[in-house]
Specification:
The protein has 155 residues and is mainly alpha-helical. Helix content is 74%, strand content 0%. The protein contains six helices and no strands. Helix 4 packs antiparallel against helix 6. The model has no long low-confidence stretch (mean pLDDT 92).
Length: 155
């Protein structure tokens, strides 16, 4: 279970490392050997999308996304909890909708391929629903955990 708990972290790191290494290779090939690689852009676009979605899921796990809580912090603690519940529920609905639409997009892109490498865009676009559903799952875990904590008398 420990591996699955940090899978998004490791995948985000892996894709980011691949982006860095491929970019270094691209710079070396273009400016040192004067022989640019044609496929670099296609691979980097796919890696960026997957890295962003896994990174966002990883941030969601630790509630690391930016929020503006200037008004919420002045509310009484019980009301702050309900605002957090509401935010989590709205976030889950938005992310599930985003994931569903992303899944439809990726399935519709089945016959669309990248011009140089011939990758199906389905595999690139699948990053959107995978990341969105992963984030929604983490929000659901936070919501359930917060409700349980509140039911036991915790803040």
């Amino acid at each position: 279970m420990g591996f699955l708990k940090s899978l998004d972290d490791w995948l985000a790191k892996l894709f980011t490392l691949a982006i860095v290494l491929i970019t270094i290779l691209a710079v070396f090939m273009r400016y040192i050997l004067n022989d640019p690689l044609q496929w670099i852009e296609e691979v980097l676009i796919a890696l960026y999308l997957w890295a962003i979605m896994f990174g966002a899921a990883s941030a969601m796990k630790g509630r690391g996304h930016v929020s503006i809580d200037a008004l919420v912090v002045v509310l009484p603690k019980p009301l702050q909890r309900y605002v957090q519940y509401f935010n989590d529920i709205v976030g889950i609905v938005v992310l599930v909708t985003f994931g569903w639409l992303g899944l439809q997009l990726s399935m519709a892109a089945g016959d669309k391929i990248t011009p140089i490498l011939g990758f199906k865009y389905t595999y690139i676009d699948l990053a959107v629903p995978v990341g969105a559903f992963w984030m929604a799952f983490y929000l659901l875990l936070h919501l359930v955990g917060d409700i349980r904590k509140s039911a036991k008398g915790g803040n």
